[in-house]
UniProtKB/TrEMBL annotation:
Key words of the record: Glutamine amidotransferase
Matching SUPFAM superfamilies: Class I glutamine amidotransferase-like
Lineage: Bacteria, Bacillati, Actinomycetota, Actinomycetes, Micrococcales
Superkingdom: Bacteria
Domain Glutamine amidotransferase span(s) in chain numbering: 50-193
Residues that span the membrane, as ranges: none
InterPro entries: ChyE-like, Class_I_gatase-like, GATASE
Descriptive protein name: Glutamine amidotransferase
CDD domains named among the record's database cross-references: GATase1_1
Presence of the UniProt keyword Nucleus in the record: no
Organism: Microbacterium aquimaris
Length: 243
């Protein structure tokens, strides 16, 4: 089997390592079959896209909608690298699944409107699959409504006509979309389990997702309902595209 690649942007080792563990667990892949590339640590190496089964993009603290002057040199480099990569991915309709920051990178490439209108606090969102989503093979077997972990300052407010919304929630209209047949992105985190999101809550406690006095309330919010279904999206993606 050709490997998959995980493009990551988390500078902190603990949540970065936990993210990789979660993608391994969710996909069922061995380490040799999920190449990990930490973009915050150095330039994106040249990828042989014909030598990959597909690409995952994880989350991170970057915000695509921040003004250019507030973006670090690292973020500007990463965004330029994603722009070049997505030119090829979208044109070739290569298997791609971006989660959280991944939806921002793909949305920016498609010139979607991304702003802070539909940011969501860290917690469990009630996600509803759209009619188009119910017919999409990546969501096959999932219930029409399921809980998913979220926590983001920005979100897509509107998509271009060539993109299809697959899932939505009351607080965020675009929770998942597809462009072409094989390029996907989710605002929620399909990789996360309860242990993983607790790691991130502590790792990013000073990043403005919640106030210092809201730590216990935030921990309670991620425990409010079981999250059982989103990881199946990762396994389905691998089963569909492994080659």
């Amino acid at each position: 089997m050709k490997p998959f690649a995980l493009l990551a942007t988390r500078a902190e080792d603990v949540p970065a390592d936990e993210e990789y563990r979660l993608f391994l667990e969710g996909t069922g892949l061995a380490e040799r079959d999920l190449i990990r590339i930490r973009l915050e640590a150095g330039p994106l190496p040249r990828l042989d896209l014909d030598g990959l089964s597909g690409i995952f993009v994880g989350g991170g603290p970057f915000n695509a909608s921040d003004p250019l002057e507030r973006k670090s040199a690292v973020q500007r480099r990463v965004e330029a690298e994603f722009a070049a990569l997505l030119d090829e991915v979208v044109t070739r309709d290569l298997p791609f699944l971006g989660a959280c920051y991944g939806i921002g990178t793909l949305g920016a490439h498609l010139r979607a409107t991304i702003d802070r209108t539909y940011g969501e606090p860290i917690g469990v969102a009630d996600v509803a699959v759209t009619e188009a989503g119910s017919a999409d093979p990546l969501l096959a077997g999932l219930p029409r409504d399921f809980g998913a972990f979220v926590g983001h300052k920005e979100a897509i407010r509107s998509l271009p006509e060539n993109a299809t919304v697959l899932a939505s929630s009351p607080g965020c209209p675009v929770q998942m979309f597809r462009v072409g047949e094989n390029v996907y992105a989710t605002q929620f985190h399909p990789e996360l389990d309860l242990e993983g999101i607790i790691v991130r809550i502590h790792a990013y406690a000073d990043y403005g997702y919640f106030a210092a006095h809201e730590l216990e309330a935030t921990l309670a919010a991620v425990r409010r309902a079981p999250v059982e279904h989103p990881q199946r999206i990762l396994r389905t993606f691998v089963d569909r595209y492994a080659r």
